[in-house]
Amino acid sequence: MLRHNLLLIYRNFQRFRSTFLINLIGLSTGLTCILLIYLWVNDELGVDRFFDNDSQLYQVMLNAENPSGIRTLEYVPSPLAQSLADEMPEVEYVATVFPPSTHTFQGILSTENLHLKAKAKYAGSDYFNIFSYQLIQGNKAQVLKGKQSVVISDELAMKLFNTTVNLVGKTLNWKQGEFDDPYIISGIFEKAPVNASIQFDLLFNYQVFSDKHPELDQWSYNAPSIYIMLKEQAAPEAFAAKIDGLIQSKAPEINNTLAIRKYSDQYLYGNYENGELSGGRIAYVRLFAIIAIFILLIACINFMNLSTAKASRRVKEVGIKKAVGASRKILVIQYLSESMLMAFLSLLVAIIMAGLLLPQFNQLTGKQLSLYYDPTLILSLLGISLFTGLIAGSYPALYLSGFNPAVVLKGKFSSSVGEFWARKGLVVFQFTLSVILIVSVWVVYQQIAFIQHKNLGYEKENVITFNSEGQQDEELETFLQEIKGIPGVANASAMNGNLTSGEHNHSSGISWEGQDAGEEIEFTDLGIDYNFFETLGMKMTEGRAYSRDFSSESAKIILNQTAVNDMGIDDPIGKTINLWGEDKLIIGVVKDFHYESLYTPVKPCFFRLVPNATNVLVKIDAGKEKETLALLQDYYQQYSQGLPLEYQFLDEAYQQLYAAEQRVSTLSQYFAGLAILISCLGLFGLAAFTAERRLKEIGIRKILGSSNLGIVRLLSGDFTKMVLAAILIALPLSYFITQQWLESFAFSIDLKWWYFIGAGLIALLIAWFTVGLQTIKA
Fold first, then answer.
1. Is residue 565 a contact partner of residue 571, using CB atoms and an 8 Å limit?
2. Which end of the chain has fewer beta carbons closer than 10 Å to its terminal beta carbon, N or C?
3. In the prediction, which pLDDT does 79 show?
4. Helix, strand, coil: what percent of the chain each, to 5?
5. How far apart are CA 778 and CA 771, in angstroms?
6. CB atoms within 10 A of CB 667
7. Are strands 463-467 and 576-579 parallel, antiparallel or unpaired?
8. What are the C-alpha distances in Å from 551 to residues 547, 573, 582?
9. pLDDT, tens only, 462-495
10. Cβ–Cβ contacts within 10 Å for residue 250, how many?
């Protein structure tokens, strides 16, 4: 019977070649999309989940209450680490890390004969007890104990010494910011894999950084991240409740509370709203998983529709089989076998297509995906194909096997009303999904365009940024003055942190006259140099910027407009506020600008004048970029021991802030286009079949005087009604979906009516074109 069924399947494929090709192209295209999405989703879900004690690793988070609600931060007070270690028996290990999150300090690492740039973090001594990076050399409990110890990656060791053997005890010099000291290698670790969100080349003892920044010892200063490993028997929920008021118990004047977040959740679940988790990158993972399901359903619907549509040409086959004794079960198995064979053929084509498209897909996603054929992937592919075959073939199998043999052999078979409406319903469902995808892609594109052209409150064009490494750390003022003398440089300044990455310190250690009892505001701390506002073209609403024409500028402070509003200060210029126990004179109020992403509203911040800022900003005259950069490159190398200038244009850095959204926009366009293509393939097949069945009717109508246009209108009328029904269903659904997505932004576009009408017209025109090709031919 198996050989007999395979022979029949082969003959049916030959007999209905156009249907076979349409199904093969549709299913293989759908499975290719699913395979690529599966690889991407699987990679996203695997980020940061490679540590041995993943279930016990947590990050301590801070909930800061301010006039606009609760803001959840990963920046916490440094003294908190010791309190957790001493007072919380649930904690196995605790480590403080700076800078927090994915940020690193870039500096110059030197041996006797070699200088190179490297990325560093400062971490508590238990860092390697918490995170199970493999140590090639060194003891994980001891490598970060000494203040002069440094642990380097195996990749960095190869660059420096061409080996990873016998390096413990060797000396390196580290130059970054206020650091210019020798350190002794105490260990070598295997560099973090590509699916780690935090990448760094070397680690220093956190105490080394803390010693140079005494403000970190205050409970009101939030700068580092703190990671903990809970004991196996500890209950995370109970522990989170226990530490909730720990800061207030140490500093009653501070209203901030604590929470914890699973370390491996930081990549996918990074957004909080009023103290509650509100999503993050997981939204895009879910989005593409849904798109994959949509595409699979559309491909399956094509198969069902075409199989049931051609049923009238297979009814005699069914009748004869039943007449000679074939049971319904045997017929169901035959037709399901046919659909599953089609699914597995499509899978083979899909694997080939995915392999060919993977390099371009990696370029779009910024990943390094590969078709690794491990058991999980193979089982997933087989499962998807089996599921596709069963779903696509179930309705045709049950439908065909249910024919009455006596009726069909007498030629009295006619399509049932149920079959007719089921086929129509499937087409409507297909195009409903397609219209939703069109609207979603359109809205995402418009929002990305809005982000790209939003007035940020500063001029990001023709501004380059780079880290202040090398000799300019010691002589930053001289360095900046020399840069300004380069032809084509309009201005130059420096700041701590970054305007686009959100890499800033936060503090609630500000008090002012008229402050309500118990009132506390979380401020962003922006350390800047002279000419910062002038370099970026930022506007002052009151007062002035820092200037060398005045003395004691470090004892003065500048606020943004939001800070002044939240503090409720009238006529702030000339008034005094207290910052970390020191009085600061307000000399200026800057117009609000966006120093974080557009997902968040503008928050209160203060500016203070700091020496040796870490990030240089250079404004270049328009039209002179190439010559100026060449001169700047030559000058920079004099100050950085011959190392090249690694710069980035500020507008490009801003675009990278929304790299995930831009990739989602681009990928959505491709997948939406493929979904529409698959839908049109099915519509094309149905139109061809309809035209074939009504060929005699068309001939009679033409003889009786019908025009070509009249016949086209007749044959396309039913399809037009189906697409219009799909549009009516899709528009309110797409409005709800896109509105939900836009609400994740603090600043977003308004949904215009023509987004939805335009998407409907596009779907209708595509359907008319698809059907018209066949009807005109008929």
1. no
2. N
3. 94
4. 50, 20, 30
5. 11
6. 23
7. unpaired
8. 9, 17, 17
9. 999 888 765 454 577 888 888 888 999 999 998 8
10. 13
Q: Token pair of 343, please? A: 């699914």
Containing 558, the helix (H) or strand (E) segment is strand 556-560
* Cα-based angle 123, 144, 496 (whole degrees, multiple of 5): 30
Helix (H, G, I), strand (E, B) or coil at 582: strand
Take residue 272 and report the two structure tokens written for it: 């909080």
CB 585 within 8 A of CB 556: yes
Instruction: Say if pTM beats, i.e. exceeds, 0.85.
Output: no
8 Å CB contact between 224 and 78? yes
- Place 308 in a pLDDT band, splitting at 50, 70 and 90: low
Under a CB-based contact definition with an 8 Å cutoff, are residues 614 and 496 in contact?
yes
Q: Which residue has the tokens 């936060």?
A: 506
pLDDT for the residue numbered 324: 64
DSSP-assigned states of every residue in 331-377 = HHHHHHHHHHHHHHHHHHHHHHHHHHHHHHHHHHHT--------HHH
What are the structure tokens assigned to 175, written together? 């130059």
- The crossing angle, in degrees rounded to 10, of helices 708-742 and 417-453 is 50
Angle (CA) 646 651 657, round 5°: 90
Instruction: Report the half-sphere exposure of 53 (CA within 13 A, side-chain side).
Output: 19
Alpha helices in 270-326, H assignment, sequence order: 282-309, 315-323
pLDDT for 263: 93
**First-to-last CA distance in the chain?**
40
What DSSP designation does 190 have? P
Question: Which among 606, 587, 585 has a CA at the least distance from the CA of 595?
Answer: 606
> Do the bridges between strand 605-609 and strand 91-98 make them parallel or antiparallel, or are there none, so unpaired?
unpaired
d(CA 376, CA 385): 14
CA distance 288 to 537: 40
Residue 422: CB atoms within 10 A of its CB come to 16
pLDDT at 243: 94
The model's pLDDT over 134-163, given as tens digits with 9 standing for 90+, comes to 999 999 989 999 899 999 999 999 999 999
> CA 623, CA 629: separation in Å to the nearest integer?
12
| Contact predicate 598/745, CB 8 Å | yes
H helix runs in 454-496, sequence order: 476-484
Instruction: Please tell me the distance from the alpha carbon of residue 729 to that of residue 723, in angstroms, as a whole number.
Output: 10
Please give the Cα distance from 133 to 130 (Å, whole number). 9
Q: Which of 96-100, 410-414, 433-437, 622-626 has the lowest mean pLDDT?
A: 410-414
Residue 749, C-beta contacts closer than 8 angstroms, at least 6 positions apart: 443, 446, 447, 450, 742
CA separation for the pair 149, 139 (Å, rounded): 12
Reduced to 3 states (helix: H, G, I; strand: E, B; else coil), residue 541 is strand
Distance CA 132, CA 52 (A): 6
Enter the DSSP assignment of 598: T
Q: Tell me how far CA of residue 109 lies from CA of 50, 71, 746, in angstroms.
A: 29, 37, 41
Spatial separation of the C-alpha atoms in residues 121 and 98, rounded to whole Å: 6
Residue type, 668: S
